[in-house]
Amino acid sequence: MEEKELIEKIKEVIELPLLRKNIEIVDLEWRRERRGWTLRIFIDKPTGISVEDCAKVSSLVGKLLDEHDFIHHSYTLEVSSPGIERPLTKREHFERFAGEKVRITLKNPVEGRKNFTGILLGVEEKNLVIIEVEGKVWRFGLEEIKKARLQPEIKF
Fold this sequence. Notes:
By secondary structure, this protein is an alpha+beta fold. The chain has two domains: 3-80, GMP Synthetase, Chain A, domain 3, CATH 3.30.300; 91-150, SH3 type barrels (Roll). Helix content is 26%, strand content 40%. It has three helices and eight strands. The chain has helices at residues 3-19, 51-68, 91-96, and strands at 24-33, 36-44, 75-80, 101-110, 113-124, 127-131, 137-141, 145-150. The strands form two sheets. It has a five-stranded antiparallel sheet. The chain has a three-stranded mixed sheet with strand order 1-2-3. Strand 4 (101-110) and strand 5 form a beta hairpin. It is globular, with a radius of gyration of 17 Å.
């Protein structure tokens, strides 16, 4: 099974049981690392994620994946909150975090660049709209975005 296909199968198995508990899958990673395969699941809920939430989700996901038994080698399961540099992976995320500072990485360069940082203005039809500090407004098709993360300002 290819990586993308495996990730979709994992989402298919765990997404609804988590949604029933008011927990959203923010992102999911499947990768080979030095110590072996790792499945990372980043979760969130309206009131925020606690360590206890992560432990409960880890237990539930472990049971669900064992039940369905389609991952045929050992792996490490990690469950955590998305953190302050939260990934934005769905249209709803871009709508919800309008007004926040973001860093966008595109699949293909636009005017010689793949990386853009600015204030997320929102989504217009199928385009993400950001404005850079210099005032330049950019529109990127949602399908062109490789990675997007919040970039919170740290204030002292």
